[in-house]
Fold each of these.
Amino acid sequence: MLIDFNFRIILEYLPLFLTGLRSTFFISIVSIALALTTGIIACACRISGVRIIKYPAIAYIEVIRSTPLLVQIYFLYFGLPTLGLMIPEIQTGILALMLNSGAYIAEIIRAGINSVDEGQLEAGISSGLNYIQRMRFIILPQALGVTIPPLLGQAIVLVKDSALLSLISVMELTRCGQTMTSERFMPAEAFFTVAFFYMCIYFVLKAVADWSQRKLIFREAY
Amino acid sequence: MIEFKNVNKWFGKLHVLNHINLKIPKGEVLVICGPSGSGKSTLIRCINRLEKIQKGEIIVNNTLVHDKSINLTKLRGQIGFVFQQFHLYPHMTVLQNVMLAPVNVKKIAREKAEKIAMKKLDQVGLTGKSGSFPAQLSGGQQQRVAIARGLAMSPEIMLFDEPTSALDPEMIGEVLDVMVNLVSEGMTMCVVTHEMGFAKKVADRVLFMDEGKIIETGTPDDFFDNPKTDRAADFIGKILTH
């Protein structure tokens, strides 16, 4: 029962959990940055209308969105070496998270761009602004507002998805819980702690989301 | 100045512009009216190539509008366009809205562009609102900003697509007044509108369209008082009695 909950063992394993937390944090930050870049590029390709870059972008987005992340991770981790490509686990994990989130981010950005009223585009066209100028001055500033909340949502998803990397023996937070469980057989304490740290990351990201919503997002002034 | 030569356009199977032949000389004020879906908006949207055409040609100032090799930026710089729904940029102030194209398309220096913008805002009576955002303005004020935005590029032609149709009745007058002032400056204007008062006061010619065709043209007095065709008479009766 709860009385049996052993806080001392958590303290004992705290250094391990903190390394795991640091690892999860590092993997997430790097993956989010890379995924954002991937997403922006994939979205730009997809809406470009230039066939040779549009169709590969669509293929990438659809393949990622139609397959489970775990399968993608396993494909990269077990599949790539048999094809002659050896990458360490952490890099494999970051690559998987980047490719996975990148596809979702591409769609989030595209939805944001599509949400801007057609008339805005026509007003820009009529005044002679070219494609890049219309994007820069008219479309993207308005798309940004509706894009930031789902983007931060995707960032939160990515942090939690990084738990799957424990399955390819990346020493991140969830893996630390597994380690402690196998050494001491105290799964309740182990995964309670793991969950607690994920919650901490979640609330930090949520605070960033709320702050950005107040500060960065353009809202029509009423 | 603007010439339509046998222009045809289809939206799928719908023949929106059916053999349009039309000449608009410099300085003319042309009012286009007709029932909903008659192709009048499409007609003026073709002039600055917001719409493609499938057959025929449109010539603006000796430029073949739908030719692929023309300088579209230059063409559009000569033509101001005012939309029914204003389409102001909601994330920019009034001044920024008016300055955007002069600074980025014409590459005019900021200080100079600001002067031009303030002059145009003065022309529509809104200098006091230069720092406001569009959502803080009434519909009539927003449409006047949209007109100033069009004028800031110093166009030779102004196109108006039902500029007062989205406005509350009490705001229609202020927008029409601005347009009447433009007429007195000699601007070439194509106005899609059902405002008979405006047409009678300033239009040189009224053009009546139905089902993609030009049914009749005439001076405002002739058209409204003695329409030649039954369809026009029917239409005028409807806008008078509503």
Amino acid sequence: MAQRKTRVLVGAGSFVDAQAALHIAARLAEEMIADLGGLLIEEADVMDTYRLPNQRIISSSGAVMMAPSSAQLRTLLNADANAFRRRLADIARPPHMEWTFERQTGDLLECFIDVGRAWDVLIFGNRTIHVVPGSVIFLGSPSAGDDEALRFSAMLARRLATGLAIFSVGKADIPWPRARNSRFGTLDAALTQMARTNAQTIVIDMKRGPVRDREQLRAVLDVARCPVVILGAVALEPKLEYATYIPPAPESGPD
Amino acid sequence: MTKKAAHPVSAPRGLQAMQLRPVCNPDDLDFKTTRDITSEPHLVGQDRAIDAIKLSAGIKHKDFNLYVLGHEGMERHATVMRLLGEQAARRPVPNDWVYVNNFDAPHKPNAMELPPKTAVPLRTAMEDLVDDLANEIPALFESEEYQTQRRAIEEEFGERHQEPIAEFAEMAKSEDVALLRTPMGFMLAAIVDGKPIKSEVYEALDSATRKQIDEKIERLQERLASILKRGPQLDKEYRKRIEDLHAIMAERVVSARVGEVQSQFAGNERIAQYLEQVRLDMISNAELFLFSEDENNHGTFPEAIRKYHRDPQFHRYAINVMVSHDAEASSAAPVITEDLPSLGHLTGRIEHISEMGTLVTNFTLIKPGALHRANGGYLVLDARQVLTEPFAWDALKRCLHSQSIAITSLADRLSLASTISLEPDPIPLDVRVVLIGDRQLHMLLLLLDPEFGELFKLQADFEDDLPRSPKNSRQLARVVASFAQKDGLRPLTAAAVARLLDHAVRLADDSKKLSLQLGALIDVMREADHYAAQANAALIAPEQIAQALDEADRRASRIKDRLQESVTRKTILIDTSGSAVGQVNGLSVIGIGNHHFGRPARITARVRMGTGKLVDIEREVELGGPLHSKGVLILAGYLASTYALDVPMSLHASLVFEQSYGGIDGDSASSAELYALLSALSGVPIQQGIAVTGSVNQMGDVQAIGGVNEKIEGFFDTCKARRLTGRQGVLIPASNVEHLMLRPDVVEAAANEKFRVIPVKTINDGIEILTGRIAGHRDRHGNFPPETINALVEGKLRSFAQTRKLFTNKPDQAEDVTTAE
């Protein structure tokens, strides 16, 4: 039986945010990716905010500058899209992967989830603002038996040449060799600590929790200062009230 | 006396055979065959040159470099190498020199002087050091100790980055402000209804609310800006801490390993300084060794035996050995010869390699030159080779002047290449340079290059020949015999050696000298050895020496034979019998390479009344050289000062080398021209069986000329081809008798009175032999005896003067004469 291809989607609001995520995708490409997708989302709310009077932007180095005009912004986004596309092509070239790229406008998370439901692994792009390499954080639940997502996190940590930190939400630790374990009673407590932890990437499994719904995912994305790898996104409920999915979502995670 | 002088002159006998060829007697040699000779004398008759070489080799002061003058085949190279080798054996082994990386300025590599036999061990030690560290440092950085410390630093700085941002995010959230990401950075916006405020909503707010929002946003923006501004400084601190950690970790293993190398070369301050620089550089660049681990291949051989020092990133720790005296053989100062003394081969060169289409270089690509190898010893060069190589002579002089070797690329000097290059430290130079060249080059250098005399204070002038004495003959015999032994030739009999010495005399062109052209003598021996081998002879006999000489002569005689054939077939008109007025056989020498041969040339003279002008036709048509013209003018002076002194010289005469279509130079035919002129004036015919050579002065003395043997042999061959009559011969200057070393067949003909070689001292002697008539001397009244040659000549000149006087007295002719004059 042929092994099923792993499909990885990288989504971000700008190329700057996508860069770190693409770096992770490149590392994964050496081992497991079969198809690679890119999604650049122009956040409608953000677009509108640009038009506020005297709106300023603070760069990653702390410089304060005027927000760009609509025309400038359009140019910037087009340049970002081109850069995003080129980088995807670069990553896909050596292993001869299929790659796709798409631009959408709307809510960042909603668009990402809607498109990403058809992909095995989603990587949400988030810019890094310093050079200190952090660890890979696996945010999991001890009761879920997260062996598969945990193995994935460990592999990613190895690929990124860093350590693995396990944030366990529940009453027990999630055991894993040479991993640093932190246990939290609630997801909020875990997120509060996560906001203060230097990480290269955060891994969550939507099928096994503790992050299971859109709001929890939005909370994770809000505190994250690094790319977030989302497994099992297919488990998220669609926004439509009634929907039928035939066939049902696959049970298996990433290969 | 006057009347007696008018009688015909009987033909004189020629020189005796022993005078024509004073051969070496084999019995005078103190051996029967060269096998009996045990000692190996190297050279004879070159004491002056040898002393100069020894002085140059031994003197300590600078600029006593040496120019060795002499002809090819004088064994100059071998002698120089032998003498320098002897002196070098007494001098200490020079120090080794290496180039090492200049860690502060890589484009200026450092030269390092090391004790002899140190350079190669140091290079090996450094290679081992790199290999060891390339294995040990990656292992060290993979250790739990390092990883733990590094992780601690990363966590510390990660938290210092994250904490303020997390606090800010929480504060913004608590104040209903959204932190939005944009392609350019972060943006803050007030939250209304759970979403960032829209512009139309903002516009609809009252001014107080807007102001409140604006102030809040501005305050948070400032706060965020101040947090983010601290980021780069934190990053810098983080890098510094990591570098310090690397240095601390690497320092332990690097210092231990470098210490081992230091102990291996303990006591050498220069190496200790260098190793300290290496240690510091390795500690601060420990990532080089980590990089090598990343790049490892997983080939057939285990990683432990990989030669990491060959990787380009480790070339910075390489030792580029420029000169090393580590071989067992080099127990003395070096004596180096460079056959191709180009700029690069002399002073060394900086090579480049192509990387990504660009030429790059580093200090390991510096290659040594002959000056490096000869440093502390001797460098022997061919002068002409050095002078013909572009910039080589300039570079050599510059190095000798500055007493240092500075490597300059020819491409850099001519601005032909625009790529990175190096400025290596000059290496101090202590070398004695010996140039070997010819005399002409030496004179030109002295004349045209003012620095030459300053830098090459000594000259070793090799003698071309040595006096012929029994002792010298024996010595030269031993020298050539020793060369035969060294060359593996068959032994020579004493007679063969004697025959060879006869050839040495002939090469010297002087029966009182022996040529020192050992190369030519050895070549004859080699060829004779070949013939001896063909004849299955155990010894080289005189017959083989003679065969070698004859064959060499035959090989070079094509043109000579063609000319001889032309004479025999009367294409070239040469009379060897009978007599003719105003016509004489002169002799010339033609040289083709090293082969010279003589040939007769008919010289004719015609006279008539004129204004005292002697026309040298060769000069008029620019076929005569300046020496020939000088000879003609001298004989004109002889005529003017000898005859008809009381009347104006009213002669118009012309002289010509018949059937001569090439250039003629030299004054050796001036006596022949004078004889022809005297014959033409006197009307007395000259015997055509006698050829003439010799120059003449204004007093009528016949003077020595060169190539006398070839000239005699040339006329002998012509006569022999026609038939030897016994009345044929050659007049030569008496002062040339000492130079005779004629071919055996000429000598044999002379002994059988078939051919004569007659020495003459004056023109009067010569003209008497040629015409068979007394020349005549003035009596006390100033008159020549009647019917003598001189009387007839003077009478003819007086008649020309009287005719001219009568002619000029005719009024209608005077103008014409004036015009003609």
Amino acid sequence: MTFRAKHLLGIEPLAPAEILAVLDLAERYVALNRRTEKRGDALAGLTQINMFFEASTRTQASFELAGKRLGADVMNMSVAQSSVKKGETLIDTALTLNAMHPDLLVVRHPASGAVDLLAQKVECAVINAGDGRHEHPTQALLDALTIRRAKGRLQRLTIAICGDIAHSRVARSNILLLGKLENRIRLIGPPTLMPARIADFGVEVFDDMAEGLRGADVVMMLRLQRERMDGGFVPSEREYFHRYGLDAEKLKAAKEDAIVMHPGPMNRGVEIDGTIADDINRSVIQEQVEMGVAVRMAVMDLLARNLRAERGRQAAGVMA
Amino acid sequence: MTPLHLVNARLIDPEGLAEGIGEILIDDGRIAGVGGATPKAARVIDCGGLCLAPGIVDAGVKVGEPGERHKESFRSAGLAAAAGGVTTIVARPDTAQPIDSPETLEFVTRRAAEASPVRIRHMAALTRGREGREMTELGFLMDAGAVAFTDGDRVVADTRVLARAMTYARGLGALVVGHPQDPGLSAGAAATAGKFASLKGLPSVSPMAERMGLERDLALVEMTGVRYHADQITTALALPALARAKAAGLDVTAGTSIHHLALNEFDVGDYRTFFKVKPPLRSEDDRVATVEAVASGLIDIVCSMHTPQDEESKRLPFEEAAAGAVGLQTLLPAALRLVHAGALDLPRLFRALSLNPARRFGLPGGTLAPGAPADLVLFDPDAPFVLDRFTLLSKSKNTPFDGARMQGRVRATLVGGRIVHGEP
């Protein structure tokens, strides 16, 4: 099997073959999910805990659904309101959870690297559902699957990522994934929302949107994360929409058949015009949500296989 | 005390920038001579050709007293220092309760003298509570023994407050130690802006913030005429400003930490919090430029920036974890990496570790000259070992060198002619 990782902490450590293994398996789950009978048993008997230190509706629901469809016992812990408020550290929370013997731990945390830290302290498979501004690997995988299905391939495409790159884990994971698969990546946004030395990642940086979108196959919009802003990155929402919001006029610069993506939740009228978001000929935003469930099923299935194999080896070792 | 005659030693002389086999006679706690016959009563010690250098004067060590004795006490810091060849600790005032009054200073001075086998001298806070609003009683604090004034890594943001404190300090002839960093740009930063920080999604600060902080402080030095030392210069961008100030004749010196000389930003790897220091580790280009500045003498002082942190404050996500690393015991072997790499020689290293800090902070020691206190370190520069952090004598074990292969072991440390560590 190509996918050998114990955890999915980010796109960075994955080889292209591992990425494709996830996508190929996810295709099968897309088909399963479209049937009336959606039950699988890949995770039967396993316990999945979703631990979200940051509020999330969509991602948490997607992981929950993915786990349940594959037969896992799924528990949601919204840690944002519980013991963390009482001063418990991340590591104590991890150790407490570990004692409950989960098999899959899905974690979102506001600090970059927090999921890596947690993964060092538990024995189960850990899936990063977003850590700070570091990575959000399942989002990049579902975006890749959406692109591949819409464009028929996942290489030599020109992909424009627009908006708040600096604070976006979605952008980082997508830059890494699409770069590994040899696509041409353009980043568009005001310089205040670009991370330092981002050009070193082998991307092209534009602050003019029309120029950046010229000839693009894929237009990926990012949420302007107002809750992350210390204030003062952009002068105002309306100026931002005027210069970087996606509307029909700006989209004309891209290829005629360019698709429009957004990881959600959208701020209509801030980064994307409502009519574009709802245009079924251009927008694949709903498809992204659908692919999300399938990709998360595939990821958890692959990690569970590795987990079972590892435990099998350990048991054999004990016997011998 | 029986006189000691240390013979067959490779003497490292940072004043003459020379080294060679020789001998040192110690009498009454002082260096009595560097040659000549052994007096009858003296105990002769054959150093077997190992290096004998002036003991390290570590300018900028944090001890957890008062307030955080579980992290480091004067006793544990003193033992770690002795084991690391540090004969004088210059303690920082950025303790849980800042050392900002003569009473607190007298307390820590007494505690340090009782508990530590090596000499400990103290810096005091420049402003009350290190809050950057009102200057401390600089005169009383000097009378109580403060060797310099600093708010540590908390930059005095209000230039009017700093200008007045500097002007007043000038009148006293006091040394002000600054932390060159623009406080606005560096707020909340956990890494140096660059590809690595962007990849890891860490809040970062441009290296330019150091130059801005330094340029501001240097302008105030020019304005006030105060004696000034920059605690840590770690970037290539800041070096020309430092060189200009020295060329212009300002009474300015600069230091750097061993961690910025031995490590770079990539050492953080997968969010290893023992590598989180302040300012954050820099790019390799900056590290190399800083090493060169130490070799050329542009940067005067190398220190450990010893900052003990307990496990709890480091077992956190990187951006939430406390900054700082212990260094008393690893300062010498880590610095010897630079010697083994050919970046500088031993006399130049000890100029930065011993001679310059002793001179700048007005302390005896740092030299092999007759009459100086016999504060010495005897070490084998080549002896290899793998560092196990749990063997460190500091109460806190937060070293970035855990598991690192190092070269250079201290065989003996002498303070005032007394052997405080090892067996020569």
